[in-house]
Amino acid sequence: MAVLVVVLLLALILGGAGFALHVLWWLAMAVLIVWLLGFLFRSVGSGGKRGRWYRW
Q1: Model pTM?
Q2: How many domains does the chain have?
Q3: How far apart are CA 48 and CA 37, in angstroms?
Q4: Among 16-20, 40-44, 50-54, whose mean pLDDT is lowest?
Q5: Is 48 contained in some domain?
Q6: Residue 5 domain-assigned (yes or no)
């Protein structure tokens, strides 16, 4: 009985970790796309001159 509980807890932990990693991958892809779009629009909208990536 204890082995079954340990196996079920392990499956629950690994399943939760897999779901969290999947969500983090999608979040990272969304951040990358937003960053690339910001980089492209900033360089295009700077009046012909190459704009800097950051404001510092």
Answers
A1: 0.58
A2: 1
A3: 17
A4: 50-54
A5: yes
A6: no
Question: Distance between CA atoms of 46 and 27, rounded to whole angstroms?
Answer: 29
Cβ–Cβ contacts within 10 Å for residue 43, how many?
13
| 54 occurs within a structural domain | yes
Q: Which domain holds residue 31?
A: 22-56
Fill in the amino acid letter for 53.
Answer: W
In the structure encoding, which two tokens stand for residue 25, read together?
């991958």
The whole-number average pLDDT for the span 35-40 is 83
- Does residue 28 sit within a domain? yes
Residue with tokens 């340990």: 6
* Separation between Cα atoms, residue 24 and residue 45, nearest integer Å: 31
Q: Can you tell me the distance from the alpha carbon of 5 to that of 3, in angstroms, rounded to the nearest whole number?
A: 5
